[in-house]
Write a structure and sequence with these properties.
It is a single chain. By secondary structure, the protein is an all-beta fold. About 5% of the residues lie in helices and about 45% in strands. The protein has one helix and 35 strands. Strands 29, 30, 31, 32 and 33 form a five-stranded antiparallel beta sheet that branches. A four-stranded antiparallel beta sheet has the order 1-2-3-4, with no helix packed on it. It has a four-stranded antiparallel beta sheet with strand order 5-6-7-8, with no helix packed on it. The longest helix is centred in the first third of the chain and has 12 residues.
């Protein structure tokens, strides 16, 4: 894990641990697979699928050979091959460049967590950063010319940038506090990020040329920022009222207003493609359900009704459908399936036929297909079978692209205690419970 994510148990780490709950890369739940069976931790195999911009290929992580390396496969299931090979360390998570020519990833293959790129066919692997304290959590600028990443090279976590060819490496945001979780605005001119420089995790923004750093929120702890499609607003949630509510503000921090006001939790805000609506999950009625509202905060509407935990909602590219994850058809097994519905809640349908641990849905660029990872547990062999699966958003045509079988192991390759559950956030931190 990137060293810049390893810090004392202060307010910011508490924020990262909370983020583990709300942005899991895998729907990983400690569970008894069969009656009387001991709980086991899922293997991180065939995970984090990333669509090519043209929607024809997927790149993903697989630990089928022990450590985590990157693979590519065509969406028809042909042409699967390994892109990276390393005896030591892990390559995670892959991201296509906007033009589809390059793949960005983090790796500790050389001893420290650093940022790498390679051609989309796996050739010409280049290490972009060199820091004994670790660099990572890298992402592309919208135009693909620059990369933003976190770095602990100066002792604490700062935000840095580098050109895609490795030149012009420089700090965007430097402070004695911890700065992390940066996201580009849609036009690439600004970044928004979290910082604990004032004690708890608050939102800040800066120009992409490292000027005009300014606070956006000034009270309590803020979580999970989401830029509007036009870049003029930012949705987030905060515990400033003693409970988690959704908020909206202008990109410069003005005009902050609460979108929700309930006695329970609200999370996972996602914008519609046209920026007119926000979908989110809320436990206001006792169970976690999916809701939508106008971006003004008006017209909140409950879309799902189940005793399970409906989570990770997302609009598809058309803006007319919403996909989400739910364990509604299972009672205490920890399993979950993927579902879709119209934006009114009509035509609710289960997308998959086979049961298992279905991961967070990753829609294709055109919104017609969904990629996800599925884990199924063999209680006799004590192994998880991890599959990379595609399904049509109308339901049906479910097909397994890649399948891996492995013993229950941690990322380091050591057998996990049967009562342990470990999940990794996109920020590179690990949250373990025993």
């Amino acid at each position: 894990m990137p060293r810049f994510a390893r810090m004392s148990d202060g307010p910011f780490l508490q924020h990262v641990r909370f983020a583990t709950w709300q942005v899991l890369s895998v729907f990983a739940i400690c569970t008894s697979a069969t009656a009387g069976a001991q709980a086991a931790a899922p293997v991180f195999l065939n995970i984090n699928p990333s669509w090519s911009p043209n929607g024809r290929q997927l790149v993903f992580e697989s630990a089928r050979h022990g450590n985590t390396t990157l693979y590519i496969i065509n969406v028809d299931g042909t042409g699967e091959r390994r892109l990276t090979t390393t005896r030591y360390g892990d390559d995670t998570p892959p991201q296509w460049s906007p033009d589809g020519q390059t793949i960005l990833f983090d790796s500790d293959r050389d001893g420290d967590d650093e940022v790498y790129v390679m051609d989309a066919d796996g050739r010409n692997v280049r290490r972009l950063t060199y820091s004994p304290r670790g660099d990572g959590h890298a992402s592309w600028s919208p135009d693909g010319t620059r990369i933003i990443f976190g770095s602990a090279r100066e002792g604490n976590s700062d935000i840095w940038t580098v050109r895609a060819d490795g030149t012009d490496q420089r700090a965007l945001v430097k402070h004695a506090g911890t700065d992390a979780g940066a996201k580009y605005s849609p036009d690439g001119r600004r970044i928004a990020f979290f910082s604990d420089r004032e004690g708890n995790a608050r939102l800040y923004s800066a120009n992409a040329d490292d000027t005009d750093v300014r606070p956006l929120t000034t009270d309590s702890t803020s979580y999970e920022l989401a830029w509007s499609p036009d870049g003029k607003q930012i949705a987030f949630y905060s515990n400033r009222q003693g409970r988690f509510e959704l908020y909206l503000m202008n990109a410069d921090g003005t005009g902050q207003r609460a979108l929700t006001n309930s006695a329970y939790g609200n999370a996972w805000p996602q914008w519609s493609p046209d920026g007119s609506h926000i979908v989110f999950a809320s436990s206001r009625d006792g169970d976690w359900e999916i809701y939508t509202m106008a971006a003004t905060g008006n017209g909140a509407r409950r879309l799902t009704w189940s005793a399970g935990r409906d989570a990770h909602p997302a609009f598809l590219a058309s803006g007319q459908q919403i996909v989400f994850q739910s364990p509604r058809d299972y009672a205490g097994t920890g399993e979950a399936d993927l579902y879709a519905m119209d934006t009114t809640g009509a035509r609710l349908r289960r997308l998959v036929a086979r049961r298992g641990f279905d991961g967070v849905p990753v829609p294709s660029p055109d919104g017609r297909q969904i990629a996800f990872q599925r884990g199924t547990f063999d209680s006799v062999a004590r192994t998880f079978h991890w599959e990379l699966v595609l399904v049509d958003t109308l339901g049906g045509n479910e097909r397994v692209l890649s399948r891996t079988r492995g013993a229950v192991r941690s990322r380091a390759g050591v057998r996990v205690a049967t009562s342990s559950c470990s999940t990794r956030t996109r920020a590179g931190a690990t949250n373990s419970s025993r």
